[in-house]
Design brief:
globular, alpha+beta, 35% helix, two-stranded antiparallel ribbon, Alpha-Beta Plaits
Length: 101
């Protein structure tokens, strides 16, 4: 399962900028990668891991702003079409999974 966090946080006042930076750093510390400035993605092992992750995100939410969390399957992730300018980016690949014994 993939988790995508999209957010629009106020950054007018100094304390708002600090809260937005703290939230972005929290997402990075949780293993998210920045897809765009306010869009972060992370691969998880399944629905239980997604639920636990959503609880942790909920506890780190800033007081103001809008945060959306999307979850989707590997197949749906592979079907994302990305453009950078006018050129199409290569198809996305799922991360390699290792078996530990």
């Amino acid at each position: 399962m993939w988790v995508m966090v999209l957010f629009d946080l106020p950054v007018v006042e100094k304390h708002e900028r600090k809260a937005a930076t703290k939230f972005r750093n929290f997402l990075l510390d949780e293993g998210f990668e920045m897809a765009q400035f306010s869009v972060y993605v992370r691969y998880t092992s399944g629905k239980e891991a997604v639920a636990a992750l959503i609880k942790r995100i909920d506890s780190a939410l800033p007081l103001h702003g809008k945060v959306d969390i999307l979850q989707f399957t590997d197949k749906q992730y592979e079907n994302i079409v990305s453009f950078h300018g006018k050129s199409r980016q290569p198809d996305r690949k799922n991360p390699e999974q290792f078996a530990l014994f």
